[in-house]
Each structure stands twice: as C-alpha cells, then as structure tokens.
# Entry
Amino acid sequence: MYYSQFSDLYKFWLHVDGPALIYDKVADIRGIEREFFPHECQYCIELVHNKENYEVMIKLFETELPGIIFRHSIRKTSLKINK
# Structure
C-alpha cells in the first residue's frame, strides 16, 4: 500500500504543490470564486468530492505533469550555489 501511493498522480501532485494551490488552479479554470477553508484537508475534500473539480484536475494532469516532476526533483536535490 505504501509503494502504490507513488503511482497515484493525484497524491504525488498533492505532495509537491499542496491542495490549496491545486484548488486555486481548478477554481481559475472553472471561473469560480475561490473558497477559503480553515484547514488544508478541506481543499482535498472539495477537489475530489466535487465532480466538476475532479474533471478539471484530470485535464490539468497533462499540462502540469512536467512541472510536477521538475518541482519534485528540485526538492530532492540539494542545490549549491558557487560563490
């Protein structure tokens, strides 16, 4: 079960960008007013339980995937700046 989460793009995206950022992108595309939830978990609930949001996320996966992978690789890499 632990390893299967890495093949779930939604969970991978949540790990990289967080649910509030994903929700903001979905709201922009749908042209809806953003709601502000008191807890981050509520963004996830709104994303997956609202069918229209979920359908937008599925379409976003194609365009967002390269950036998600890039941001994930940056987090795993320790960057050093030469002075």
About this structure: Helices lie at 9-17, 19-30, 40-49, 51-76. The two ends are 44 Å apart (CA to CA).
